[in-house]
Amino acid sequence: MGYVAGETILDDEFNVFVASSSDPFGYNHFAATGATVYGLGQAAIPVVAGGTTTITAAQWNSLLTGMINVANHTNDSLTARTAVTTGDTIAIKSAVAADLATLAASVAGGSTNATALATSSALQTATSGSEGWNSSATQELTATWANANNMRFFFNAGGKIRITVGATAGAVNPKDQSYIDLGAALGNLDINSLTSTRSGSGETLTTNGLANGFQDLNTGYTVLIKLTSDNSTYTGNHIVISAKTTGGDGDSGNATSLTVKMVATDGAADDQFTAGNTAGIAAAIKDTPKMVTKIFTITPTTAQGLDPVYGISGSAVTSNTVS
Predict the structure, then answer these.
(1) What is the pTM of this model?
(2) Which of these, 49, 191, 245, 264, has the minimum number of CB atoms within 10 Å of its CB?
(3) Where are the alpha helices (DSSP H) in 75-194?
(4) Domain regions of the chain by residue span
């Protein structure tokens, strides 16, 4: 319940709740523009001036409504409030400050408990031009935002970039299957604000860079994961997923796009067979499959309080080569 007309609080106390850009952070810092891990792109609440200015019910309610909207999105519980009475000032101040700190921490963590999210269909699909590559297949897919702030708001509100990897072949042989299995073990690779996750399991986790998220990326590729085949015949085969931002370092707030690179490598020590070999062994031993990489977005929605919300402005396959 909002504060009622006639009750007062010093403007400097109200302005700290609204506009503090240092710990304890005010509403505008984590919910409006903010910086780095803070900021959701919501409308900023105006500060007030004058040493003992009366804070109106409308001004208090704008703060409390904004806090409730963010809490609904981050799925945080706020202190239950009723109209204040004489002697409640310190208690109310403490509760508001504690709730602001809770919300700021949730946003800084990438709103990991947010559920008002919409998963897109595949925005781009990169498919190798042919089967039978000899060494590696490389595919890069890029998501772009209108500006750096929109990109931060997307990830801070719980947005994710999702990548899946698959393989297709005309007649699947054991080598093809090793890549199919690697893609299944990867599952959905989601890049969040501070970390990345895979929904699959199995195969050999050779490199684990899943502690890296959007905020850890820069203009050089960071390896998120390397999975190696556990098929005894093809233990040299592997896939590597890396990511980078362009337009600047993710932490600097200058990035406007994110590119994910998938590299599939044929590292098996193959023997050469002829067309008359035993069924199930490829006559062309380098009969590697077409690799298929897809990019999706998981975008915050207005369903639980945030308005506006921010998504990507475009996507593209930026490379698709074999060697």
Answers:
(1) 0.91
(2) 49
(3) 89-108, 148-156, 174-186
(4) 11-108, 117-322
